[in-house]
Amino acid sequence: MIRKAIATACCIGMAATGVVAGSTAATADTGAVRTFPINTLGAGWTSVSYVDAPGNGYVYVHGQRNGDDGYAVVTESGEVIRQAQLTNAGDVTGLAATTDGIMYVCHEKANVIRVDSAGAQTTVGVPGASNTGDCRRGTDGAVWFGFSQNSRAQGLGRVTSSGSLATLDLASQRSDVTNSLYIDNLVPGGATSTVSFVMSEDARVAPFDREKTLLGVARYSDANGITLRNVTEWRLAPGGPAPFTTLAVAGSNTYSSGFNQLERLASPPSATAVPVTHNISGLEGGAGGTLWASLSTAPVLWHYNSDGQLIDSYDIPTGIPPRRMRIDPAGDLWLVLGQSGFARMSGGATPSVQEQPSTSNAQGSTAGTEITASPGTWTNNPSTYTYQWQECSKADGSDCTDIPGATSEKYTPTDAQAGKYVRVVVTATNISGVSQQAATTPVQVAQRTSPPTPTPPTPNPPAAGGSTVATGSTAAIGNSQTMELDVPKKTRRNKRKLYEVFFTTTDVPGTVTFTFKRKRRMKTVTVPIEDGIAEYRWKTPKKWPRGKTRVTATYIPSAGSPYATAAVTDRVKVRKRKR
User: Fold this and answer.
1) Residues paired with 303 in a beta bridge
2) Full-model pTM
3) On the CB side of 295, how many CA atoms lie within 13 Å of its CA?
4) What DSSP string describes 185-210?
5) CATH of region 237-315
6) 473-575 domain in CATH 3.20.20.70?
């Protein structure tokens, strides 16, 4: 076994559509972690107790805030959207959020607290309950929980984002009506609207020993509410009831753990032991049927494959064993670190495309007409997208090559590309790494109806007794486009004149820097480009040296621009001012 230190993060032949053939495979960085220290949440926070990330871009946090129970809604990048105290909360026993952002809090009272997307807090009463616990988001997007009641047997509850409640009394599962039945752990998994749970049946007389360990599977339907699918008993071989307390569903496998043991539950009543050397505090099913296990005594996470074999272990850089962990729909783990805040660890699931990228001119384009790309829809919460435009000779995209510098979401085909095809290749990135590439359908570039005509320079107003003929210095900026500098022929001290740069296309991302230099005097100013024109009205200083001043205009492209840096130079004659 190789233990890996978890890195701390801040952050050819091709097919016509879909994933690019022959491209580099998606690269996953399993174990990469980003920590969110307690001060991420702001002043007054002293610890974090529960975290849930339902895959909607937000993280829901419970902990101690201003000496009492508080909650926060935080973006996955760490920006606090909302935080407040929880009102009328008992001892909090769990937190979960629905996929559409409604947060539920389980606590030592006969209800669950509902917090809507605006922060309004209400309660959903649970009939017959004395307290609620172990809130978990199910595969159906609703929140499941266990609750205690006076019948000495606990129950299951399920609540939707609208507050619709369903419950199931588990008293019928006791072998002795005088015994007590407790839900030790509750987890989603398997089919949609299904949860699995561990129950321990304990004697009500001394020495109050555990008599049975039961594994139950329940399912919800609108027609029948919550129903038990099956209940199985698990025992040590040989020996008494299995001392399971923690449960996880990982693909087709169900795992449970007790003190210094991990079992794969396959054929009741005997479980298959998975070798462990430490006490396990938490289990979570991961991507691809894998299993994650946290330790109670060491800042380490174990990662098992779908056969129950240890793949690797990862040291947590904070040096703190996670108190709890929850997995999000992307397969990333969210770790509760108490007074140190919380963390997000990559589970190795990179983005994969669901809906292909597209372009604004899907039926074809014309040289000189801008095309805009849409990245499409991807799984596993991408944080950024990259774009690379390509030129193709064939409609099937089998011979596409990259266009140098064309790496923004917009591109304007050139006249030289008329009759050819263009497309864009998109790559998505999340905390786990970089996806495989996906490409749009190539679109053919049509020839312009008339050749491009450079925008003629606008002459400056004539000065009294002098001419303002522009010099027209030009330079190529790439992609068959040029820039032209217009300066006045003459100017006087203390007089303002217009200096302009004209581009042969109206969409030029970037800026222009004008530099005026004569002997040891120099003036520099940077201006934006609007509709293909950059201009600056320079007032020549009173003591500027007389004679010819060199004027240089430098085009500086912005990131992703299809054009290159270029400069043009000319001169303006400065005369002394009139008296």
Assistant:
1) 292, 312
2) 0.63
3) 18
4) EEEE-SSTTEEEEEEEEE-SSTT--E
5) 2.40.10.500
6) no
pLDDT of 6 reads 39
pLDDT digits (tens, 9 = 90+) for 116-151: 999 999 999 999 899 999 899 988 889 999 999 877
State the pLDDT at residue 252: 78
| CA 500 vs CA 418, 453, 551: distances in Å | 31, 18, 11
473-575 shares the fold of 237-315: no
Nearest to 437 by CA among 372, 386, 392: 386
* Assigned CATH for 353-446: 2.60.40.2700
* Whole-number pLDDT of residue 183: 85
DSSP 486-524: E--SEEETT-EEEEEEEESSS---EEEEEEEEETTEEEE
The pLDDT of residue 9 is 35
Q: What is the pLDDT of residues 353-375, one digit of tens each?
A: 889 999 987 777 888 889 999 99
- The region, left, alpha or beta by phi > 0 then psi within -120 to 50, assigned to residue 368 is left
Residues ≥6 apart with Cβ < 8 Å to 66? 44, 85
Tokens of 394: 């064939």
Spatial distance between the Cα atoms of 500 and 513, rounded to a whole number of angstroms: 11
Average model confidence (pLDDT) across the chain:
84
Distance of CA 131 to the CA centre of its chain: 35
Q: Is 60 exceeded by the pLDDT of residue 440? A: yes
- 59: β partners: 74
How far, in Å, CA of 412 to CA of 169, rounded? Answer: 65
Residue 157: closest CA among 180, 175, 131, 176 = 131
Q: Is the bond preceding 37 in cis, omega lying within 30 degrees of 0?
A: no
Domain boundaries, given as residue ranges, for the chain: 237-315, 353-446, 473-575
Beta-carbon count within 10 A of 397 CB:
23
Containing H/E element for 225? strand 225-233
For residues 256-273, average pLDDT = 75
